[in-house]
Amino acid sequence: MTLRPILIHPDPRLKKPCDPVTEVNAEIRKLADDMLATMYDAPGVGLAAPQIGVLQRVFVMDCVKEENAAPDPVVMINPEITWTSDETNVYEEGCLSIPEQYAEVTRPKEVRMRWLDLDGTLREEQFDGLWATCSQHELDHLDGKLFIDYLGPMKRKMITSKMQKLKRERARDGAYKHGSN
Ligand code: NI
């Protein structure tokens, strides 16, 4: 397993629609392993392939919140939403590509998802609560959409400029580190 660097918004790779996976092979299984390790390390409850610069329709999630509970990693390949509830839910969302910024987003409370698992088997399951929010948030990533796209333009601009500042600071710190060795 390899921890992969997570891209920070704004980055053109986070705005692109991703390509469907054509074959669930060893390369995809390695990608999923790396993504789960990277997500747990961050830590986060979900991570989509474009967030590590891979423009393929894959995401991972684990929304188990209880401490000491067994992990429940889910890997979705070529996921689709096949049904959404009329009832909505408001959740304060965050994103590993937009660190330490949170905002309320309204989405359907329940969704039915269809996807390929790591064996290439077609699966379908209904999710609610954080699992439903997370699967919709991650699926959005595969279409080049971020949770801040649901916010008003002022709020979105404010968060984006904070992220530009963060990226400048990180680039500078990185340059110093390389310079001192
Ligand atoms: Ni995200």
The radius of gyration computed from the alpha-carbon positions, rounded to a whole number of angstroms, is 17 Å
Helix content: 25-40%
> Which class best fits the helix and strand makeup?
alpha+beta
Distance between the termini: 27 Å
Strand content range: 25-35%
**Broad CATH class:** Alpha Beta
Mean pLDDT: 96
List SSEs in N-to-C order: HEEEEEEEHH
Biggest beta sheet attributes:
5 strands, antiparallel
What compounds are bound to the protein? nickel (II) ion
How many helices? The count is: 3
- CATH architect. name: Alpha-Beta Complex
- Residue stretches low in confidence (pLDDT < 50, at least 5 long) are none
Coarse shape:
globular
| CATH-level-4 superfamily name | Peptide deformylase
Q: CATH topology, which one?
A: Peptide Deformylase
Give the total of beta strands. 7
Q: How many domains, as an integer?
A: 1
The strand line-up of the biggest sheet is 1-2-3-6-7
Task: Record the SSE blueprint.
Elements: H1 26-41, E1 46-48, E2 58-61, E3 74-84, E4 88-95, E5 98-108, E6 110-116, E7 122-128, H2 129-142, H3 153-180
The structure holds nickel (II) ion (NI).
Nickel (II) ion is lined by residues 95-97, 137, 141.
Quick overview:
Helices cover 32% and strands 28% of the residues. It is an alpha+beta fold and 181 residues long.
